[in-house]
Every structure is written in C-alpha cells, then in structure tokens.
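hey
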C-alpha cells in the first residue's frame, strides 16, 4: 500500500527491472518433436516459456520447474490434471467445501487465489473467489505437456500466481495433423469413476503465413468417490447416490497465422454435492426441507487475441486483448441451501516488448490493465441460499460491483562469465486493494553437467469480489508472499539426471476463509503469517527401454506461523491436513511390437485434520499404486493409429480421503477406491 508517487516509482522499477537466465548449452528441440525418440539430453533442452515469456530449457530457467511431456502423460494412465499433479513434488490436494477440491503447495493450502492455471495461455481462475476446482475437470486427452513453476510467478504473470503456475499446453495442429478420438471408461466398486470422450482436430493449411487451426473438446461423467460421507451432524449419505459427481465439458479452439494467435476456451464443469459446508445440503421438496444433492457448475468462456510484431532482428512487440465471462459456483435451485447465481466478466489488454540488446542480454517489459465486473443474475433472489448481494462493495447498487487493476512488469536477462543473474519485478495498483510491488532475483550457473540456481521471489494476491464482499467493512489488504530457493541439478550420465532444492516461504496477511457451519455465513480476514520450509528432489532416467521419474518432498510449518485455523493443537511441525513427506513415481517399460507397461505411485505420509466427529484425527500414511498396459498399433498395421490401454488405479484399494486443510467444520470426503479403467484411442492423419 502507498501513495501515488510511490506507484510512479514502482512502475518505473517494473519497466527497468532486470532478469537473467542462460541460453541452453545444446540445441533447443522444436515443439511437436517426437518425444519418444529423444535422448535425455534432448528432453532436458526442451523449450518452456512459463518461467520468463522466453523459450529456455527447464535446467536454465530462473525458477524451480517441472515439465511433463506427452509421452509421460500417456504412460501415466492419468484421466485428468488432478491425477498428474500427484506426480509433482510438493503438490498435494485437499477439500474445500461443496465437493470442491484444490491444490496445496509445499505444505500450505494454496487453492484459493495462490495458484495460476493457464490453458494455452488463457487464465481459467474463477473471478468471484479466485479458485480453480480439480477432479475430472481438465482431461488428459488433449494435453500435450505441462509446464509448472513450483514457486512464485507473480513477477511475470501477475496475481494468483503466488505459490505456483500450472501451464497446460494442448495438442494443436503441429501435433495432431488430422483427427484424434479417445474414449475412456472407469469402474469403482459401486459406480463408474469416469465415462469420457475426447476429440482433437488439427490442420495446417498451405497458404502464405501457414494458417494452423486446432479444435479440441471433451465431455464426460464421473464420481469423486463411491464411499459414504458422514456429515458434521452425523448423517450418512452414499456418494454413489448422486452425492459427489464430477462432470466435465470443454471446447478449445486455436488459430495461428503469421504473428497472429487467437484462442477460445469454453468450459462447463458440473458437480453434484451433498456435503455442502459440512452438513448435508438441503432443498425444499413438497413444502418440506430434506437432504438433497445440489447441482453446481463452473462456467467460463474465455479467450485472447495477440499479434507478435517483429521489429527488426532484435525487438518484438506483442499487444494482447483478452476477456472471460464466467458463472462460477452456479447452483440454480433457489430452494437449495447452496443456491448461488452470479456472473463475472473480465476484459483487459496488455502490451509486452522484448529486446535482445546484445548477445546474452535480453530485456522484457510490459503493461497490463483489466476491469472486472460482477453482478447478481437474479437480483430479486439476493439472500436466498448462499447468494449474498454486493452491498459491501457497492452500497448504492448492491446488485453489481466493479474492480480494476493496472500493472507494469519487466526483466532483463543477461549472461556473465560468473553466472546468469536475475533482477526483475512487477508493480500493480488495484482499485480497492491499493498497491503491490514484488521483485524477482536469481543467479543461475551451468557447469558442464551441473546446474545451480539461487532464487528469491515475491508474489502478491489482490482480493477477489467475494473476498471483499464477505470481509468486515469490505476491507482487505493484498496478501504478500516471499520465497527463497536454492536448487542443484546434476546430469550423472547420458540417461540419468537428478535435482534437489530447498526453500523457505512466508505469506504475510493471508486472506483467510472462515465459515459458520451452522448458519453457512462466510467471512474473509487478513490473518497474521503462514509459511513453510522444506526439501524437494527429482530423479529422471531415460533410455531405449523406457523411462523412470522419482520425486520426493518434505515440508513443515514455519515457526512463525500464527494462523489458528491452519495450526494443529499438538504440533507446529505441519499444518492442518498436510503430510510431512510425499514420494511419487512414474515409470514406463517399452516392450516389442508397440506394447508398454506403465506404473505410477504416490505415498502420502500421515495427516491430521478434522474427522467425522469434528475432532482432530490422524489419517495414516497411504500408498496409492496405479498400473496399466498399453498397445499402440504399428505404422504398417491395418489399424495404425489405434491405441488401447487397460489399467487399475489404486490397485490395493487404499484410503486417501479428502481433508479440509483449515478449521472450517467440514468432515472428510472418502477418496477414490480401486478403479479399473479401459481407454481406447484412434488417430486419423489428414
């Protein structure tokens, strides 16, 4: 927070800030390359842009980065993004309310406003609460690769990127070259786990400038669990009876021509929820209030248009227009205890410039401005269910509210004989929350097979509509996050690479969600400090017989954490609902004639959180093992393009319940049990 003069200084710093990273020592592999045919060295040189808006390898990027390739995604047998994120060190998943689950990162609940999720560069964050729900939401059928920053990304990407950035890159015209269809069926003991179908289309037209068009989409039905939920009042409900459905529907259209890129993403993610805010959801039926699952959806139509102007050999300029129309948490039944019906619209523009000033010297600078509008879809129903008006933000017209933001960012990337150094930042002024300034500092160095990184980053999160709306007096400060990290990487052989990093993080004035389980009244407050420190490690092996990825992470609460909703009564070593340790594995064994055996696993150490009796309970260590066999038809086969996968998730039917990571009065939701699945895919070149 600060004066207008301070904002001018912040803006100048944002444009003039410096960021440094090293060019890959080897050649960078072009997007769309045959990953299965690449060596480990080639894979480590794969270009990513999530860290710096510039193609660079994960080894040299000024951040702690995880990349999952298409080959690894297919081998994992994962049905969706949620399954893939269990394979990332430091990432676990927890329960919020109303059958909605989200990410915890490095031992801290991060789902609300602290993780930025991009689909082909389009921000999919809910504008009203700042969340992005997981669980059969983003299917793997159209994911080409994942680029993940395990750490702050606000200096480049703005707010909602405090703890991590997840960039989904989908299969476009370069990868599809025709049509692909995929169908999948999964069966739990009492109901289906998922029934989905996906379609990818892509074609590059032979016209001047190479016009490329891609269309992908999917729809399906699924269930989070077939267990029994016991509410905070002791009532039981079999979740296979419509209590925890998760149903996706998405359309993604992309067009590129010369320097033009356009993207449209239409997302309709629907849930049913019986768990509500802890007690069973209810509705009025024939004049009586009875337990009844509520249907809830997260609807968004979002997209952007950008054009890259090449101004000589050294300068590029990219203006961008973007917009997102949303209807999140939409529960249409006014008699439901969870009724909620609001719209939100973001419209914005940005300009980013890059300048390769000298060999080894690279400048990036930009500005971004957007306006957010929110309104009650049915003003006459304000106050029904969980549908308050916007009186805290706009007392003169409580049916609507407006927020706006202006930011400037910049970084200069430079190589020196000593190391590659980073100094960068972002400054923002928000119409209600005020000003924020975050830096980005790094030193990276590659010594033949060794890579070393020393990183310090700040991040911020401006409150969203419902944060302000449910805060006392409508007043909240932005939360600020500070992270120090160090990473070492070593390519031991041509087929083995290992890396390890240590970190410490602290969130000042975290925006804390509170809920009264009895009345359902929500609230948000700035609350003290929360933080963690820990270690993460990855090993990656790649050869002619297949590949293996191993990961480990350890996290414990920082001693100065003082937010009671997160703390446990018996210890400060971990925060509520968080494991101290996590192991993850992904392996693929290539067999002759197109066959392959694959396995994934994650071990989550014991966690403590509210049990069904609303007393703290220890949930034991869980080991989830998944295995599948896959066959891809040979190019010379009459059925070339056909792929068949048969597998089992959670082979030993181990319990891994969804735990609420704060003291919100919500009992656990049982996790997914043993899941036998079948996947059939077919690719038709055109």
């Amino acid at each position: 927070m600060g004066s207008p003069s301070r904002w001018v200084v912040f803006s100048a710093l944002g444009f003039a800030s410096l960021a440094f990273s090293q060019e890959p020592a080897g050649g960078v592999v072009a997007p769309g390359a045959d990953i299965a045919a690449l060596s480990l060295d080639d894979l480590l040189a794969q270009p990513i842009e999530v860290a710096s808006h510039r193609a660079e390898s994960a080894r040299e990027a000024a951040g702690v980065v995880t990349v999952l390739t298409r080959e690894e995604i297919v081998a994992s047998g994962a049905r969706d993004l949620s399954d893939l994120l269990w394979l990332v060190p430091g990432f676990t998943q927890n329960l919020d309310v109303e059958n909605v689950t989200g990410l915890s990162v490095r031992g801290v609940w991060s789902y609300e406003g602290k993780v930025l999720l991009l689909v082909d560069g389009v921000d999919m964050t809910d504008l009203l609460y700042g969340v992005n729900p997981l669980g059969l939401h983003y299917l793997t059928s159209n994911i080409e690769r994942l680029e993940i920053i395990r750490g702050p990304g606000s200096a480049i990407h703005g707010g909602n990127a405090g703890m991590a950035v997840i960039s989904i890159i989908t299969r476009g015209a370069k990868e599809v070259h025709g049509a692909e269809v995929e169908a999948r069926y999964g069966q739990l003991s009492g109901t289906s786990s998922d029934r989905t179908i996906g379609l990818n289309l892509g074609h590059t037209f032979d016209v001047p400038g190479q016009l490329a068009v891609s269309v992908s989409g999917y729809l399906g039905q699924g269930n989070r669990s077939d267990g029994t939920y016991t509410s905070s009042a002791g009532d039981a409900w079999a979740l296979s009876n419509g209590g925890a459905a998760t149903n996706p529907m998405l359309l993604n259209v992309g067009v590129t021509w010369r320097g033009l890129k356009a993207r449209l993403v239409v997302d309709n993610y629907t849930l049913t929820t019986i768990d509500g805010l802890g007690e069973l959801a209810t509705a009025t039926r024939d004049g009586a209030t009875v337990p009844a699952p509520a249907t809830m959806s997260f609807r968004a139509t979002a997209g952007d248009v950008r054009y890259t102007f090449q101004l000589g050999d050294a300068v590029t300029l990219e203006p961008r227009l973007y917009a997102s129309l949303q209807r999140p948490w939409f529960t249409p039944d006014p008699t439901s205890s969870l009724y909620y019906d609001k719209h939100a619209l973001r419209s914005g523009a940005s300009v980013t410039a890059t300048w390769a000033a000298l060999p080894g010297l690279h400048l990036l600078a930009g500005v971004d401005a957007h306006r957010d509008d929110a309104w009650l879809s049915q003003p006459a129903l304000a106050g029904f269910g969980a549908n308050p008006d916007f009186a805290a933000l706009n007392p003169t017209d409580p049916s609507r509210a407006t927020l706006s933001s202006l930011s400037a960012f910049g970084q200069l990337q430079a190589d020196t004989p000593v190391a590659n150094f980073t100094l960068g930042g972002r400054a923002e002024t928000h119409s209600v929350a005020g000003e924020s300034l975050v830096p980005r500092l790094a030193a990276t160095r590659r010594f033949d097979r060794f890579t070393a990184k020393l990183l310090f980053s700040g991040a911020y999160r401006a409150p969203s509509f419902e944060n302000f709306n449910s805060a006392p007096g409508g007043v909240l400060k932005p939360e600020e996050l500070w992270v120090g990290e160090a990473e070492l990487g070593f390519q031991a052989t041509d087929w083995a690479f290992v890396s390890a990093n240590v970190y410490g993080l602290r969130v000042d004035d975290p925006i804390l969600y509170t809920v009264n389980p009895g009345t359902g009244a929500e609230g948000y407050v700035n609350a003290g400090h929360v933080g963690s420190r820990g270690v993460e490690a990855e090993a990656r092996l790649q050869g002619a017989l297949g590949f293996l990825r191993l990961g480990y992470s350890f996290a414990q609460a920082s001693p100065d954490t003082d937010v009671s909703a997160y703390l446990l009564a018996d210890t400060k070593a971990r925060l509520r609902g968080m494991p101290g340790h996590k192991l993850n594995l992904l392996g693929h064994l290539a067999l002759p004639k197109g066959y392959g055996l694959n396995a994934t696993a994650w071990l989550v150490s014991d966690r403590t959180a509210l049990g069904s009796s609303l007393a703290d309970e220890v949930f034991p260590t869980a080991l989830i093992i998944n295995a599948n066999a896959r066959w891809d038809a040979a190019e010379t086969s009459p059925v070339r393009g056909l792929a068949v996968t048969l597998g089992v998730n959670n082979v030993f039917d181990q319990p891994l319940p969804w735990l609420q990571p704060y003291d919100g009065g919500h009992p656990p939701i049982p996790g997914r049990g043993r899941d036998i699945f079948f996947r059939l895919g077919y690719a038709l070149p055109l």
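Residues 4-16 form the longest helix (13 residues). The mean pLDDT is 89.
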